[in-house]
Amino acid sequence: MSAIPDLFAKLRAEKRKALMPFVTAGDPDLEFTAAVLQEVVARGASLCEVGIPYSDPIADGPVIQASYTRALNAKIKLAAILDMLGKTCPVLGAPAVTMVSYAIIYRHGIERYCDDVASRGVAGLIVPDLPVEESPILAKVCGERGLSLIQLVTPTTPRDRALRICETSTGFVYYVSVAGITGERTQLPADLIDNVGWLREQTPLPLCIGFGISQPEHVKLLAPVADGLIVGSAIVKRVAEAAEKPRDEVLKSVGDYVAQLIAALG
Amino acid sequence: MRTASPAAVSSPPATSQVPDAQGRFGDFGGRYVPETLVRALEELAVEYEKSLTDPAFKAELDELLRDFVGRESPLYHARRLSERCGGAQIYFKREDTNHTGAHKINNTLGQCLLTKRMGKTRVIAETGAGQHGVATATACAHFGLPCVVYMGEEDIRRQSPNVFAMKLLGAEVRPVTTGSRTLRDAINEAMRDWMASVETTHYILGSVVGPHPFPRIVRDYQSVIGRETIDQCRERLGRLPNAVVACVGGGSNAAGMFYPFVDHPEVELVGVEAGGRSDKPGDHASPLTYGQPGVLHGSFSYVMQDDDGQTCDVHSMSAGLDYPGVGPEHSYWKDSGRVRYTSCRDTTAMEAFDACAHSEGIMPALETSHAVAMAMEMAAERPKDDVIVVCLSGRGDKDAMEIARLKGVNYG
């Protein structure tokens, strides 16, 4: 019912930070997605973000976009993803949220989507193309089912608007580090720490920072001001190697990478 | 041609009083975009609103439309084409006579003025047929703004004259190699660019699609087409036409033509989508005829999607209509019954192109040929004193090589 708030309450009490890896569902197949989710949690990830492949993801950079295209080309359907989540989430040992376009939620049916993921043990939703103005109906449906609806704040969000977003977000607030699309970056914006620091004083909600984070140096820099860090493209890129390399080797490489980032969390 | 199913009689009557403050045309429209873009869209809506009450802004745009574009565009009586059909009189609203050869320039000049007004220093755009790309490159050259145009690889192939024109005008054309490599993917890439460049860059969207306020802004800038048509019909014919026909891809020429007529219920409005090869999924680009309401490119509207909400690949021989979505106001007009939407096959549009070229000495764009085909079909069934106005949205020179390929003609 309150898996994400409980998780962050526990982490805050233990003065620990969360690492939240992003994994594309169905790249290269759902069996491997389940294995990757289990591996990253075994290596210390506190929660997981499962990307539901979408044909037109405008917030995503080339790496995640290509993973969506591979999954869709492999005819990965939502029904099969829900089956995988139903088998994986209850035994994962960490909450999972779906990153999903509103196009998919609307087509599946707002209530039906929320019922379907809640019954599979999913803890929340991140909907990257649903700003707060368009989200009241989904927020209500999520609330009735105990799902967190995680809203995003970005560098282009005015401060008064950021406060409104924090009022409607549940679970945590997703702070987007850069104005732009997902993808690894060598440098993060200079004012990022100040902006996140300001937001932390405004809301009791946990703050997780995502977009562009890939290196242990990023993690060391940002961990003090955040409750959690989200790593997407750098994981997806490693998972994509499963197309050519033995799967146990790829799993180990993803796991080692996650362990390296978690070590940097401090 | 296949006609879309009749609209529900219980829908409220359509009026011109849309969209509302949230960008809703009835249920349709809205703003389904990443948070990163919201501030820029709000700023755009505010600046656009201010520009409406700024006499200097209007004067500058009016002067450009007159002296740079060559407006007003003629209303032309297509006598030989009308005789050939044997019924109603067909008139062309000659947007093909505009500078750059299509209606697209009406919107790009307005949006370039907005770009300057907002203090932004760079412009990006998407293009399908290349007409919007050329019109954006032209407006940017006029205003001295750097311009990047995203264009799908498939469209670059079939509309190469326009690609060269954009480059000659100083724009950078960035090929898009993802997905179906057409207009839809070009919009995705332009949006991704905008996500990272939004502080300094304005995205000149070329159709009545996308998040609020684009559908309204583009409609308003294109509405000069319908307003002039009303004035010209009153002056020349002493009355409004019986019917007005326009092609619909994203739907900008149709929205601009129809909008001023919406509050004249005696005028029949007909939008023509691309029927492609057949009515099978993937063989056409007719979301209003065969699609369902859903979300694509930031707005809620009819769209061709599979049962998971993934956008379907679509087909039209015309790059400008080869798009799985449509502007939200068209969805509103469809459901309210104010506009009738039909679709026209590739082959029928090609026949209309030939008829128009041979009978009138006018080569319409392949997009426009879909509307000409529908007007010819309607004219044949209607009395001689009926008047049907077609929005002749663009010229067909850009299509010459693609038509040669489609017809299997080896030329040049």
Automatic annotation (TrEMBL), chain A:
Q: Which keywords describe this protein according to UniProt?
A: Amino-acid biosynthesis, Aromatic amino acid biosynthesis, Lyase, Tryptophan biosynthesis
What PANTHER family is this protein classified in? TRYPTOPHAN SYNTHASE ALPHA CHAIN, CHLOROPLASTIC, TRYPTOPHAN SYNTHASE, ALPHA CHAIN
Q: Pull one GO CC term from this UniProt entry.
A: cytosol
List the InterPro entries hit by this protein, alphabetically: Aldolase_TIM, RibuloseP-bd_barrel, Trp_synthase_suA
EC nos: 4.2.1.20
Pathway field of the UniProt record reads: Amino-acid biosynthesis; L-tryptophan biosynthesis; L-tryptophan from chorismate: step 5/5
What is this organism's lineage?
Bacteria, Pseudomonadati, Planctomycetota, Planctomycetia, Pirellulales
Quaternary structure and interacting proteins, as annotated: Tetramer of two alpha and two beta chains.
The species this protein belongs to is: Botrimarina hoheduenensis
Q: Which family does it belong to?
A: Belongs to the TrpA family.
Q: Which HAMAP family match?
A: Trp_synth_alpha (MF_00131)
Q: Which class of enzymes does this protein belong to? A: lyase
What name does this protein carry? Tryptophan synthase alpha chain
From TrEMBL, chain B:
Molecular function GO terms recorded: tryptophan synthase activity
Main role?
The beta subunit is responsible for the synthesis of L-tryptophan from indole and L-serine.
Q: Which spans does this entry mark as compositional bias, Low complexity?
A: 1-19
The gene name reads trpB
Origin superkingdom: Bacteria
User: Which pathway does the record list?
Assistant: Amino-acid biosynthesis; L-tryptophan biosynthesis; L-tryptophan from chorismate: step 5/5
Record PTM N6-(pyridoxal phosphate)lysine, positions in chain: K104
List the protein's name.
Tryptophan synthase beta chain
Q: Which NCBIfam families match?
A: trpB
Species per Swiss-Prot/TrEMBL record: Botrimarina hoheduenensis
**Quaternary structure note:** Tetramer of two alpha and two beta chains.
Q: Which GO terms describe its cellular component?
A: cytoplasm
All residue ranges annotated as the Tryptophan synthase beta chain-like PALP domain in the record: 71-394
Q: Which reaction does it catalyse?
A: (1S,2R)-1-C-(indol-3-yl)glycerol 3-phosphate + L-serine = D-glyceraldehyde 3-phosphate + L-tryptophan + H2O
Query: SUPFAM superfamilies this protein is in?
Result: Tryptophan synthase beta subunit-like PLP-dependent enzymes
Similarity field: Belongs to the TrpB family.
Cofactors (names): pyridoxal 5'-phosphate
State the Pfam families in the record: PALP
Give, as one word, the top-level EC class.
lyase
Keyword annotations for this protein, in alphabetical order, are: Amino-acid biosynthesis, Aromatic amino acid biosynthesis, Lyase, Pyridoxal phosphate, Tryptophan biosynthesis
Give the start-end ranges of region Disordered.
Answer: 1-25
